[in-house]
Write a structure and sequence with these properties.
Blueprint lengths: L6 H4 L21 H14 L4 H54 L3 H20 L22 H10 L13 H29 L3 H6 L3 E8 L4 E2 L4 E2 L2 E2 L3 E12 L5 E13 L26 H12 L6 E9 L10 E6 L5 E4 L3 H16 L5 H12 L7 H9 L10 H12 L13 H4 L4 H19 L3 H19 L5 H15 L7 H15 L1 H10 L4 H25 L1 E3 L2 H25 L4 H27 L4 E3 L3 H22 L3 H16 L2 H8 L8 E3 L8 E4 L5 E4 L5 H11 L3 E7 L4 H4 L2 H5 L3 E7 L6 H14 L3 E3 L5 E4 L2 E7 L18 E6 L2 E5 L5 H10 L8 E3 L10 H7 L3 E4 L12 H9 L3 E4 H4 L2 E6 L2 E6 L59 E4 L2
Parallel strand pairs: 6-8, 14-15, 15-16, 16-17, 21-22, 22-23, 23-24
Antiparallel strand pairs: 1-5, 1-7, 2-5, 3-4, 5-6, 7-8, 7-9, 10-11, 12-13, 12-25, 13-14, 18-19, 19-20, 20-21, 25-26, 26-27
Helix pairs in contact: 2-6, 2-16, 3-5, 3-6, 4-19, 6-16, 9-20, 9-21, 10-20, 10-21, 11-21, 12-14, 12-15, 14-15, 15-16, 16-17, 17-19, 18-19, 19-20, 19-22, 20-21
Keywords: Cell membrane, Membrane, Transmembrane, Transmembrane helix
Organism: Streptomyces endophytica
Pfam family, one: Lactamase_B
Amino acid sequence: MTTARPSVHATAPSPRGASDPRQEGPPDLRLAGPALAAWAAAAIGLGAPGGGVAMACAVGVVLAALALRVAVLRRRAERGGGGEYEGTEVCEQYEVDERDDEYGEDKENEENDEYEEDKEGEQSGAGAGAGAGAGAVTGTGAGREAEGGAGAVRGGAAGRAYRPGSSRRWSSGAWAALAAVLLGAVAGAASAALHAADVRRGPLPDLADRYARVTVELEVTDDPRLTRPRVRGSQRTPAAVVFNADAVRVTAPDGAVTAVRTPTLVLVRQGGSDEGAPPGGASSAGEGDRPDGRSAPTAAALSEAWRGLLPSTRIRVVARAVPPLMPGDQVAAVLRVDGDAPPVKIAGPSVLQRVAGRVRAGLREATDGLRPDARALLPGLVVGDTSRVPPDLDAAFRATDLTHLLAVSGSNLTIVLALLIGPPHLATRAERRGLAPRLRLSLRGTAVIGGVLALAFVVVCRPDPSVLRAAACGLITLLAIGTGRRRSLLPALAAAVLLLVLYDPWLARRYGFLLSVLATGALLLLAPRWSAALQRRRMPPRLAEVIAAAAAAQAVCAPVIVVLAARVGLVAVPCNLLAELAVGPATVLGFAALVTAPFVLPVAQALAWCAGWPAEWIAGVARTGAALPGAEIAWPGGWAGALALAAVTVVLVPVGRRVVRRPWLCVLCAFALLLAVCRPAPFTRVITGWPPPGWRAVVCDVGQGDGLVLAAGDGTALVVDTGPEPRAIDRCLTELGIRRIPLLVLTHFHADHVDGLPGALRGRSVGAIETTTLQDPPGQARFVRETAARAGIPLVRAVPGERRRLGPLSWEVLWPPGSPFAPALDGPNDASVTLLVRTGGLTLLLLGDLEPPAQQALLAAHPEVAGVDVLKVAHHGSAHQAPPLMHRLAPRLALISCGADNPYGHPALRTVAALRALGARVLRTDTDGAIAIVGTPGRLAATVTGRRTGARLPSGRGGGRGRGRRRGRRIRRRGQAGRGRPADPRLRAGRRRPAGSGDRRRARACTSA
């Protein structure tokens, strides 16, 4: 009788089977239960009252003791009931397996088995697509006992009952496992309660509740980092230096001094004092502005002094203590420090931190001469230093789910340890490679030196969640090497999670740690199975392993990313596969530059130059993928959205198995995905109706800001303002097919009108940038000048009376005035460039952000302007409007550009009511999405990307009330709107959409007769 061959041999191309077989078996999950229990208990215990946690721990200990007692009794009963012989036989079989592995019986097959398992772990770690811990040492540390036959036998023996009829009851192993889970939960909760008590201990929490000004001695615990400037309203908040520190000595306002050990978050404001500012209020200064009159170099020097602080440095600060954002946060208080002076150092950093800081600084110095992307990216790939990564590159990495490359993980530690032990599958054998055998190191000596390297890796790369997880897994693997035991991957991961959660329970609430563990678990459990399935369909092994690793990591991490970003990336797996080609060379050469920089800087610079080429490839992949119109789609956020995406993934996986069996279906699905990602204009127009044919003007949905596009021919447009965020305006222009911008007008220099400028310039030909005459705010005006200079685009200033024509488009500059006798401009809003545009017989007036005094002056200076077809309402529809101007203009269609749920209440209800009273149809981007104007004066129409407006616009031009204007009827679900009132444009259904969202519904149109 012929025995069926194992699948690993049956699918091999050779008739003799696989040369490096991987024996299949159930995973060893005995430590998974205690690790998950400790994780969950720690996450809950951090926010629970201490008394409740203590009571729960006591109950857990009692239940665990009872479970252990039952396990002991059940074990004795099993041995006394005739199962002893069987159990002994199993144990003897396991010992034989161990001896076979250790002393060489059946050595060829055993070595091939281990080699295949280790090689698979290496390849899975190298191909990890989306997890922060994709290439951990756990993926390269040899032989997966959990998936071998011995581990399966032992696991089955531990939980099997031998007495007749006992299959209906729990075995001794099950009771022991329950006890381990309870003890893990107790340990996690107890550790969490102790760490949470540190946050509540001392006077600092009470002082923060009173917003007191205190003097604090701090010990820095991580590297200071510079926050990204953000747009709040019309201003850009100044950058701030942020770092974590432990308060060791607190001096209260009454002079009381207390020695404590309390974690805090320090926020060093670079824009001046926070005295008198409301909590969370934004500074009115732009980036680089100095209200106190200091020069920019002085401000830069102060910022560099704060950012140069190393962990373990002691400083003294005078700060305002405020409560943390979330009640259960890891810090007791946020200390707001004025960055008007350099930090006062009490004690320098430790020797270890000085050496680590010098090594990191050496790598930055070695990369100074590289191109911008390589200079920014290489330190992040090697040691996780992202201080040079610009906002646009950071956004591209997030859009393509490549941020794990900047979070140092197991793949980096693998490279370090491979120099010592060589290929991990040979680490315990006579054939081992690397430096260890050349230095004649024993296994124990190798393990000790490897542990030192792992700890040095943590110090240099800083203890981020993925770094800690990789180091813990690596230390456990090294311990197995030093003791001569088998290395097992899943138990090592579970043990690492358990130890780290007990050491630092706050990791249980950190998404980075969750992503790292999920990605590594996916590489160990899902990737091998998916890779085998692809290889059975004749895919090359290496390609199958890389694709399976990237897809598995992305599948398990995507639901967590949805919780954080409310989006799903469609290009994550392809971008990870393309980036993987360059990750290895860039990291190896970068580590070589890191090691040589403190000793021979020219050699380090040469190595960094070589590493710069693959680093630029990675940056190019990220930028190209993020620039695709369908790079990501919106998805409901929160845990409900995560569960929905997980359910969709579970459904799609079996569907995908059937699809790969039919080549024509694979080609069809690939083509559909390509269309969804690239979104060619004809295809998008057919599916969504956007952009509508013959559009004249579009108000882009850029959030709380302005961004308008006026058609001037095929792929050509006049752009007025760019909104607060580059990606939103870039996406809008891409959807409209705009490749050429002869003139880009910036009405004034507020951040909500100019900060999106890099997005408008990206990949497009721009002839000139026209700005207002008032260079205020100075920091944002300087930003425009520098951006234009880098792109080689000339700057011109608007001149009143200036007339231009571009294809079917013509316009005239009405404001700001150029005469020295003109009224003084009261701030940047009143200096807004105002355009009167004519296209296709339609008249459009774009008011920028003019305030009522400037609106009245405009009315007086241009009495001929009246009866426009379309009005871009000033200042996002705020309440500050001049009624006489509105009556004079009497627009048929009023457009308001504002962000959903903005804190300013834009648009004002009375402004909307006044426009409707004049017979205008009001459309707004916060509820309607992007708005396109189409048609002619006789048949004016508007198409929106949000929900349906459903009303016809009034026809004819002119007047306010009683002017005989024709009213349009409104299409409603219930009945018909009354005839004696203007059509109500408010929308009754649908949802609000985020600015610049790529998730487009089919465009809706409202037309006039």
